[in-house]
């Protein structure tokens, strides 16, 4: 991955975008794809849609959600301490001692998440699970009035963790789920813009996936595609305390994570396998016995139904501040999707 492309990935991952508050990251995404697409559309929901070859009859959608998990301010007490609830789902124990960035209309506000010191806890308190009600955000305010000069009820926040490189082309970020997928969509559009296409391609950075696949539901209805691919992350099983008998054998650096199951159109998936084999693109397979909790589920059930596939990025430590992925997997997924779409005929019957 060249430096310019990685800098875009870094900027996208570091820009806060909790579900419902994606606009700043969406602008980063749009700025990257504009000039490479024939049309660039935003909607009232916040989805960003880049379109190539819009006059073609057959429409193919590619999505990756640009929202991330986060917190939202629900209460400020008389002493200026801030209480929150989750946007999306995470283990509250992971929040203790974290730094946070609060996204306020007055600008970003820095804070820290506090909890009673372990020295002050009784033995039974130390064994209890951490609850959101027992932790708070401290911005240094001396009173509620002081805090309200800087933040407001309903302001979102994210854990303040930078994008960093690890060994072996691995990177860590709080938000690879799934801004890494939105990154893939942007790069697919950029690279396909240099190829001759037989079909219309709509690349979408969807919103509000973490709270119910909401952006994929609305954008796929608007695009009305014939077929599509959703890009998301999936659990890597190559770290301690994972059970490959339950989640499958899925390694960082092992290539695109392809899927088989009810959420996946078998004809479309077979063609993707053929493309991967033809171009010697590495992949690994995961079984999906039911609908997935990804954009693929919303797209498949849009209108009268859409032929859809899911391609996942192996991800360690999902929904934590230290999600880890491989840049090699991103490159392989981009190449696979680009080669598949570039060779797609002007029409294909995906009916079973």
Automatic annotation (TrEMBL):
It comes from the Bacteria. InterPro entries: Peptidase_M42, Peptidase_M42_aminopept, Peptidase_M42_dom2. It is an enzyme of class 3 (hydrolase). Zn(2+) 2 binds at residues 177, 210, 319. SUPFAM superfamilies: Aminopeptidase/glucanase lid domain (SSF101821), Zn-dependent exopeptidases (SSF53187). Its EC number is 3.4.11.-. Binds 2 divalent metal cations per subunit. The active site is at residue 209. The keyword tRNA-binding does not apply. One of its GO terms (biological process) is proteolysis. Zn(2+) 1 binds at residues 65, 177, 232. Keywords: Aminopeptidase, Hydrolase, Metal-binding, Protease. GO terms for molecular function: aminopeptidase activity; metal ion binding. Its cofactor is a divalent metal cation. Belongs to the peptidase M42 family. This is Putative aminopeptidase YsdC. It comes from Limihaloglobus sulfuriphilus. The gene is ysdC.
């Amino acid at each position: 991955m060249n430096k310019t492309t990685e800098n875009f990935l870094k900027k996208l991952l570091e820009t806060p975008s909790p579900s419902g508050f994606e606009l700043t990251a969406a602008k980063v995404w749009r700025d990257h794809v504009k000039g490479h697409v024939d049309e660039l559309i935003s909607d009232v929901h916040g989805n960003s849609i880049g379109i190539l070859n819009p006059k073609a009859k057959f429409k193919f959608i590619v999505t990756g959600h640009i929202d991330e998990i986060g917190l939202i301010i629900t209460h400020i007490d008389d002493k200026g301490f801030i209480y929150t609830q989750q946007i999306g789902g995470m283990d509250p124990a992971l929040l203790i001692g974290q730094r946070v960035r609060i996204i306020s209309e007055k600008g970003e506000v820095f804070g820290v998440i506090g909890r009673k010191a372990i020295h002050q806890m009784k033995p039974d308190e130390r064994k209890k699970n951490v609850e959101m009600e027992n932790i708070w955000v401290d911005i240094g305010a001396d009173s509620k009035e002081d805090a309200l000069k800087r933040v407001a009820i309903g302001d979102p926040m994210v854990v303040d963790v930078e994008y960093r490189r690890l060994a072996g082309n691995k990177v860590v970020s709080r938000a690879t789920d799934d801004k890494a997928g939105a990154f893939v969509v942007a790069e697919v559009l950029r690279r396909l813009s240099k190829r001759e296409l037989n079909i219309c391609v709509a690349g979408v950075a969807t919103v509000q996936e973490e709270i119910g696949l909401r952006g994929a539901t609305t954008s796929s209805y608007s695009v009305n595609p014939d077929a599509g691919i959703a890009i998301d992350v999936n659990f890597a099983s190559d770290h301690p305390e994972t059970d490959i008998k339950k989640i499958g054998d899925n390694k960082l650096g092992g290539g695109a994570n392809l899927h088989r199951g009810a959420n996946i159109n078998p004809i479309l998936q077979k063609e993707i396998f053929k493309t991967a084999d033809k171009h010697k693109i590495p992949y690994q397979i995961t079984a999906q016995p039911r609908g997935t909790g990804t954009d693929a589920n919303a797209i498949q059930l849009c209108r009268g139904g859409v032929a859809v596939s899911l391609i996942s990025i192996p991800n360690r430590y999902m929904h934590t501040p230290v999600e880890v992925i491989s840049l090699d997997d991103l490159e392989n997924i981009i190449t696979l999707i680009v080669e598949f779409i570039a060779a797609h005929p002007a029409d294909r019957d995906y009916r079973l």
